[in-house]
Amino acid sequence: MPKRRYLDLKSDDVRELEAIRDRHPKAYLRERATALLKINSGTSPHQVALHGLLKPRDPDTIYEWMDRFGDEGIAGLVIRQGRGRKPAFSPSAPRGRGGEASDPADPEALSQSIRSSA
């Protein structure tokens, strides 16, 4: 049987997480702070993942939050740059049949593109 994971926070960390939970503008940070505070109060991470938050989470997600908080502190709870879905359209990508890049804000290039496709 796997060993149960605990979180033993210092009083400064608890106060900081409570402030994030109560007043931070980003909902995902409020959720992560809530999860860590519940684990610190004695609830198992698995229980918090399945029943302790507004929507169920994969327990591995909660364990990742714990690991990142242990390694980096509050900064570890923030979503990192470059995560998530990439844009479907990139202004720097080549467009058109000839592969030439054109500025979408340039009306001359737009009218030329329309004429060449007609």
Describe this structure in words.
It is a single chain. The mean pLDDT is 85. Helix 2 crosses helix 3 (45-52). The chain has 118 residues and is mostly helical. The chain has a domain at 11-77. It is elongated. The protein has five helices and no strands.
Shape: elongated
Please report which band the strand proportion falls in: under 5%, 5-15%, 15-25%, 25-35%, 35-45% or over 45%.
Answer: under 5%
Mean pLDDT over all positions: 85
- Sheet with most strands: none
**Contiguous runs where pLDDT drops below 50 for at least 5 residues:** none
Distance N to C terminus:
69 Å
What is the CA-atom radius of gyration, in angstroms?
23 Å
How much helix is in the residues?
40-55%
Q: Number of helical runs?
A: 5
Helix/sheet category: mainly alpha
Q: Helix-strand pattern, N to C?
A: HHHHH
Number of extended strands: 0
Task: Summarize the topology.
Blueprint: H1 11-23, H2 27-40, H3 45-52, H4 59-72, H5 107-117
Helix pairs in contact: 1-2, 2-3, 3-4
Short key terms for the protein model shown above:
single chain, 118 residues, mainly alpha, 5 helices, 51% helix
Brief overview, please?
This protein is mainly alpha-helical. Helix content is 51%, strand content 0%. It has a domain at 11-77.
